[in-house]
């Protein structure tokens, strides 16, 4: 322990001790060499470069092919079979394969360099990795979990046409001016679907038996009695009853023919489609024209065969129950013209007045 301490205390003192011990050993080695016989010198061994073993192992290591492998999983950690794995280098495809049953893949025989790996699966997203591959590497790519691909689902809900048609009738029969007077044949939804023939008859019959209809017919009969129109009916209660019956029959014929039967035959919509936009001039003439032009069930505008023919047909039927003195072609022409004119007047009211006083009116998109 004392020698070690002295050696640590001075490196020069340690060197002196080594020199003293080495002198006798060197002299003894010279004496042994003089006594031994001379031997032939051996040829020098070939020099070996640092890091290179015999047989060129270092050169082989520098050119040894590399392998890239990995396992593809989903977000739940389950192996993904059949995932597409693409290996590229500088944008060019090197190799492509699909994962096996355990989600594994392997690319062998790769030269050193930088590669790009793209992994994707059906219904799953895509991940990308950049790989720096060295000669002789066996590189396992970690964290290859494919995300769930963002999917946009479009759900189309198609209602039963019969149900849609029933809904149109339900909307119509709840529309009343001031909550009292029916406004069944106005629609405030510009894109309202068409009614089926069955619903056209339902709406016509519903409007015919509405209490307000009986009141209106009574008012018309009273006015005709007061002015003694159609004198062949006479006066008094009997005359009023005849006028009332004739007026109700006119109204019923026009509603059934013009709003149900002929619209079903010609596939036309008996309703008035509220415009509600544009200049007053354009809206006014649109309302008047609606008595002669209507929308077909196919959504196209066309001549209003239903209402025009229905008005004149109802006028012709009136010859069956009006007094003989009032019958003839003129009765049909007058009643038909009155039906068309009254429809045009109602349309103007629908366009400019009735909407603001109509309850349960459903707004739609107008032009």
What features would you describe in this structure?
The chain is 45% helix and 17% strand. It is an alpha+beta fold and 367 residues long. A 4-stranded antiparallel β-sheet has the order 3-2-5-6, with no helix packed on it. A 3-stranded mixed β-sheet has the order 4-1-7, with no helix packed on it. Strand 8 and strand 9 form a beta hairpin. Helix 1 packs across helix 2, helix 6 crosses helix 7 (236-266) and helix 7 runs antiparallel to helix 9 (305-317). The radius of gyration is 53 Å and the shape is rod-shaped.
Give the termini distance in whole angstroms: 111 Å
Radius of gyration over all CA atoms, rounded? 53 Å
Tell the overall outline: rod-shaped
Give the rounded overall mean pLDDT.
83
What's the arrangement of strands in the largest beta sheet? 3-2-5-6
Q: Low-confidence parts lasting 5 or more residues at pLDDT below 50?
A: 1-20, 36-56
Main β-sheet description: 4 strands, antiparallel
Could you state the oligomeric state of the chains shown?
single chain
**What class, by secondary structure content?**
alpha+beta
Number of strand segments: 14
List the helices and strands and how they pair.
Elements: H1 2-9, H2 11-35, H3 57-62, E1 66-71, E2 84-89, E3 92-98, E4 104-110, E5 113-120, E6 126-133, E7 138-141, H4 161-173, E8 176-177, E9 181-182, E10 186-187, H5 197-208, H6 211-227, H7 236-266, E11 272-273, H8 280-289, E12 293-295, E13 301-303, H9 305-317, H10 329-357, E14 358-359
Parallel strand pairs: 1-7, 10-11
Antiparallel strand pairs: 1-4, 2-3, 2-5, 5-6, 8-9, 8-14, 12-13
Helix pairs in contact: 1-2, 4-5, 5-7, 6-7, 7-9, 8-10, 9-10
